[in-house]
Amino acid sequence: MNARVIDGEIITTRLDDVRAYEGVRTRRILAFILDYCIVALLTIPFAILVFLLGLLTLGLGWMLFSVLVPVVAVLYIWNTLGGADQATTGMKMMGIRLDRLDGTRIDGLTAVVHSVLFWAGNVILTPLILLVTLFSDRKRTLHDLLLGTVVSRSGR
């Protein structure tokens, strides 16, 4: 729980307030779409660099195209979701952020693992990822439950 007892007084955090989860599911889906577009746009300059590298290496550099999008996405997640705001650009635009239930900060590695679990879960259990939010506390997805994280409204 996020409630702590200090000098016999129960102190609650914003994660205990139900208002912090109003509209999170819809905002989360919209943030995903925005982030997907941002990663696609960020891939373009790197694709140009890989193309030029391929010309210089007589085609060997073009093998990097196979890992280009995942590498760009991991770097994006590491720097945004694992950063000080604990939110990607899409999440910031939607007014949500990722928090740990124990109150510690989200580091880059946890952010990347969160994202990888999301994609792995979508490949294997697509409808289950969103169905879990209908029955779990705080509208948490399957990968949130596994990592002890929650997505909440940042302004509340």
From TrEMBL:
Record bears the keyword Kinase: no
Domain of life of the organism encoding this protein: Bacteria
Lipid bilayer topology: Multi-pass membrane protein
Keywords: Cell membrane, Membrane, Transmembrane, Transmembrane helix
Major location (coarse): membrane
Entry annotated with the keyword Cell membrane: yes
RDD domain boundaries: 26-147
Pfam families xref list: RDD (PF06271)
GO cellular component terms, semicolon-separated: plasma membrane
Membrane-crossing segments per the record: 29-53, 60-78, 116-135
Location of this chain's protein in the cell: Cell membrane
Protein's recorded name: RDD domain-containing protein
Species for this entry: Mesorhizobium metallidurans STM 2683
